[in-house]
Amino acid sequence: MNEKETISLVTSYVGKLLRTRFGKGPESVNVFLCDQCIVFHLRNFMGPVEKFLLTQEEEKAFRYTRELLMESLLPELKAFLEENTGLSVTEFYYDWGVHNASGAIVGVFGSSLDQTEAYPGKEDVHEKVINVTAAIQKVPEHIDSWWVTPKMLAVFRQGITVLLEKEMVELGYTEVLKAAKRRLEKRMLEQDANAGAILNKTLTDLYADWDFDRDRSIVIYIFKE
C-alpha cells in the first residue's frame, strides 16, 4: 500500500470512528504522514451539546467529555493503524481549538524520533521554545522538531515535568494540570516563541499536549500556505 492509499484508508476510518463516538464527525479530516508521526487535522468538529457547554462557559466540562471519549477511541485507532497500514504508533497526543472548532490528533512513531533533518531556523525555534518551557517548568532534557508538511511543524520535548506537576498527576489532577498548562503555555508559545516570525510564516493554529507518564510533549504549529 502506497502513502496515498494509506492516507485515503485512514481518513475514511477516522471520520467514521469520530462520528460513531461523538455523534457528529468533523466537516473534514486531513491526514498527514511523515517519518516521525501521523497527524489528523480536524475542522468544524463540534456537536450541539458541546456548543451548548461552551456557550455556558463550561469549557472544563467540554474538555472532560472529550477526554473520556478519546481514552476509549485511541486504542481502536492504534490497533487499526497497526493491522491495516503497518504503522506502529507508540504514543498519541491531541488538542482542540475551541475558538474555531478544530483539533489535532498526533500519533508518534517512537523509533523514528532520532532521524529528523535540519531546516533553516531550527535552532532559533528550539531556543525560543526552550525559553518558554524553562519559564513555566524547566529546560527540556531533549528537544527536536521536524516539518510534517511545508505548513505544519512539530516540536517534541522530553524531560520537562517538575516535581509539583508529578505530584498533581499522582493525586489525580491531570486534567486540571493540562488545562492550566494549555492556557498558559499556548499563550506564551504564540507570544514569546512565535515560530512564524522566525520562519517567515503566518501562524493559523497551535496545538499542545503532554504525556506525563513518559514526560513528553508535542506542539503542532500550523501556518498559512
Strand order of the largest sheet: 1-2-4-3
Distinct helical segment count = 7
Mean pLDDT: 92
Number of domains: 2
Find the count of extended strands (DSSP E, 2+ residues). Answer: 8
H/E element string? HEEHHEEHEEHHHEE
Termini Cα gap: 28 Å
How much strand content do the residues show? 25-35%
Protein name: DUF2294 family protein
Pfam family, one: MpsC
InterPro entries: MpsC
Walk me through what this model shows.
Pfam families: MpsC. InterPro entries: MpsC. The protein is an alpha+beta fold and 225 residues long. It has two domains: 110 residues; 102 residues. Helices cover 45% and strands 26% of the residues. The protein contains seven helices and eight strands; from the N terminus they run αββααββαββαααββ. Strands 1-2-4-3 form a four-stranded antiparallel sheet, covered by helices on one side. Strands 5-6-8-7 form a four-stranded antiparallel sheet, covered by helices on one side. Strand 3 and strand 4 form a beta hairpin. Helix 1 runs antiparallel to helix 3 and helix 4 packs across helix 6. The longest helix is centred in the N-terminal third of the chain and has 27 residues. The chain is globular, with a radius of gyration of 17 Å. The two termini are 28 Å apart. The model has no long low-confidence stretch (mean pLDDT 92).
